[in-house]
Amino acid sequence: MGFIYLDHNATTPVRPEVTEAMLPYLGGMFYNPSSIYSPARAVRRAIDAAREKVAAAIGADPRRLYFTSGGTEADNMALFGAAYSMYVKDRRKIVISKIEHPAVLESARALEKRGFELALLPVDRNGIVDPVKAAEIIDDNTIIVSVMHANNEIGTIQPIKELAEIAHKHGALMHSDCVQSFGKILLNVKDLGVDMASFSAHKIYGPKGIGAFYVRQGLKLAPLQYGGHQEMRVRPGTENPAAIIGFGVAAELVNKDFESGVPARLAAMRDRLQELLIGRVPQTCLNGNTDRRVPNTLNISFAFVEGEAMSIALDRMGIGVATGSACSSGDLEPSHVIMSMGLKEEVAHGSLRFSLGLENKMEEIEKTAEAVTQVVERFRMMSPLYEDFVKSGTGGDICKQN
Fold first, then answer.
1. Is the domain covering 4-10+261-388 a CATH 3.40.50.1980 domain?
2. Given a cut of 70, is residue 79 above it in pLDDT?
3. Average pLDDT, stretch 166-172?
4. pLDDT score, position 254
5. How far apart are alpha carbons 123 and 342 in whole angstroms?
6. Would you name the residues annotated as active-site residues?
7. What pLDDT is attached to residue 325?
8. I need a surface site. Which of 150, 182, 204, 317 has the fewest CB within 10 A?
9. Nearest to 43 by CA among 242, 218, 303
10. CB-side exposure of 253: number of CA atoms within 13 Å?
11. Per DSSP, what are the bridge partners of residue 94?
12. Helix axis angle, 262-280 relative to 241-259, nearest 10°?
């Protein structure tokens, strides 16, 4: 058995069908799609076809979908575009959840430094935003509400439709980062009621460096970049045909995955891993909501052990897992997502994220559970905190919120 990769929320391998579709546009079909001669027009038609495929996968009008360099750029376009478009209306508040991806969180903080007001929506112990509490924060001064559809670390699915209704009641825009929900659960941007949404190809077995930004009909945002006519002047610059075509094929294959029962298979393996780890390893906390989460994601905190140390040890055993967001790797601070859910810092430090993908098999789950159990036991034997905990004999709920 080779390397067991359980970090698909960080990135996914490119599917063979995607690679095959991209190759011509890295070779003979190299033409600039903005040129007027026939080979270039063929490239333009391929881009248009890819746009239709991605739009169909999310229930959008292709004319309202713009290709970007990835989800991060799309998130920036949403927040900065909304803030500067509605600036003349004297609205100053940006509302996001406490557990947003850094692409949204840091964009909001940058706007705050430029004079906008930033309000953070709290989440409960399961990582869910309460619409009732959100209604107390969103008001007539709000420009935009941005809440991710599914969290990248714990997999929880947010009540986007309800939050969108609250935002619209106050004349505010609603944006959702759908990078982690796309391909894992069925979604339709119109059903969600969002004004804007962000997507990324490399989370759905497509190439890196390409994403998409959905903007509902009738909404005009201030552009972040200025230049040519590409992407309807919303995101100017020569397109990346190979990546766009690859994105289209990856999006088209998403629906086939749903039809063939891939989400259910992933959920079965995730649930088995959860059962084994919680059953074998004491003093563990399940992070997230078991009823409202994407099927491939499991996040567990192992008290009295450092997540970074566990990840390194598992890597040496041929298993790849994450301690939090891949965009925050190298940060020794506990995950802001886990901390926002109210876990004690000493428990939050010991969180691991397991995110499954198409190539994973049940035997890999069994091996992973065995390896994690061994690693946790070994590190706890060296932990003075764990030793004190055992000697105290007090027990108690280590998952209790601060």
1. no
2. yes
3. 96
4. 95
5. 9
6. 327
7. 43
8. 317
9. 242
10. 20
11. 118, 144
12. 80
